[in-house]
Amino acid sequence: MIGRTSTASLLAMTLAAPALAQDGTDACAALAGVAAHDTIVSEAAMQPAADGLPAHCLVRGVIEPRIGVGGRQYGTGFELRMPEDWSGRFVMQGGGGWDGAVRPATGVIDRTKPEDTALARGIAVASTDAGHTGDSPVDGWWGLDQKARVDNGYNSAKLTAERSRDLMRRFYGEMPHHSYFMGCSNGGRQGMVAAVRYPQYFDGVLAGAPAFDLTPSVIAWNWNTKVLKDLAEAETGGDISATFSDDELAMISQAAIAECDGADGAEDGLVMAPLQCSFDPAALQCGEGESNQCLSEGQVDALKKIQQGPKDGEGNLVYPGWSLAGIDGPSGWRAWIVGGRPGPETSARGGMFQKDWMRLVGSTPPRPDFDAMTFDIDDRDFLQEAAPLFAATSTDYDAFADKGGKLIVWHGTADPAFSTARIAGWFDTLRDDMGDTEVEDFARLYLTPGVHHCGGGAGLTSFDALSPLIDWVENGEAPEAIEASGTPPGAEAPVTRPLCPHPAHAAPEDGDGADGSGEDQEFTCVTP
After folding, report:
1. Strand runs (DSSP E) across 192-285, as ranges?
2. CA nearest 219: which of 99, 336, 83, 318?
3. pLDDT of residue 298
4. Separation between Cα atoms, residue 11 and residue 383, nearest integer Å
5. Could you report the per-residue pLDDT of 418-447, keeping only the tens digit for each?
6. Residue 340 in contact with residue 241, Cβ under 8 Å?
7. Percent of the chain's residues with pLDDT above 70
8. Residues 79, 105: Cα–Cα separation, whole Å
9. Measured distance CA(185)–CA(409) in Å, rounded
10. Using CA atoms, how far apart are residues 146 and 150, in angstroms rounded to an integer?
């Protein structure tokens, strides 16, 4: 069988190994067929090196295929790519949206550099559709099937990891020496769930912008949608997408950045300490006789409601709201909150996701005819029964930490999908529940300035968090600052800054600030 290559250091993951003989091709092809009592491998074939990917064995299949509710075909579809020159490592690649499709199992590490993949570094990578095939990433029909809910919530990640381990054993003749989970959004949530539910399968988890508190998040998306629908009916003839123009979103963002940029000691277009500053959008409200470069009273009121987050009738905050800094751009509020298609129905991703969640995925029992725009925040009990299936809010990481597992979470400060304050609040609770010293030994949270959901935005969008995670797991080198780069508003060239573990943030060492020009300047991590 095929042995793994040795590595001289963490980043030497692609050292040459002896070329596969013909039996390597045969070993890959031999994986086709029934891989286990509940697993069918429909495709298993060696792929030549191409498009930046190394030669590898590509395996596709389905676990627990069945006919479920509505006579539809269900099952956990998966893909596993095993490189010819193997580092001995395995990465489980998380999904996104409600999943519903098997994405190429390559393990992109930095979305600004799609050619830099875990597979190209000699790591075996698996992906899954999380238990169903969907018509679109926001399609929630599968929520009618209870097992599909369980599979999407947590079970498919377990099944795919287990079958992948067995296939690697058969192909390589041995198991991976270290296994990791890497994902963003729903994939980040899946990683956090795996660390708590299945700590035996993963040595390290990299969770980006995790959808870890889904039910309150969905309620917040519903809140945002109704806020803008009310504004549209009052001011734009019902067109939700016209409630804020691109120029207005840019003006709001620039004003919020100007208000909060200096809180970190550097006026460089990057809000490094977003939780230490708040911006009152009333500063942009039009005065008497004004109409240009200002906002209506209705727009200001809508911004305040979204910035605050949904509250119930007793004044309890259900989910903390969103910062206004960095909200402009095609991957910002236009994509997730405001939408871009004219009309009275929302085209924003958050608005579309919440519709089927309210009707099918999160409702127990399902309510196929329910209109999400009639949702009463004080009547939300029907969403609570299914909430634990999808939640990753647990702070019980004892088993994961005790086995030596390591967790890195990152979240963009301008994320329009999930609140930065919510993930920071969860991490603070983790420290309270487990103790600062214990958490310091296994977990880090990095807030990435100006970054939208899983990428995009005028901020520090380019960084590699997988390498420090592997170094931490395998060499005991705990990460502090992670180098990141990007082009903030007003900068003429990319800048490089350290991402600091929460609650620390980057600040200039000399205390004189930065001019955003991209010139080299020394930054360090400081704790408020």
Report:
1. 204-208
2. 318
3. 98
4. 45
5. 999 999 999 999 999 999 999 999 999 999
6. yes
7. 94
8. 6
9. 11
10. 6
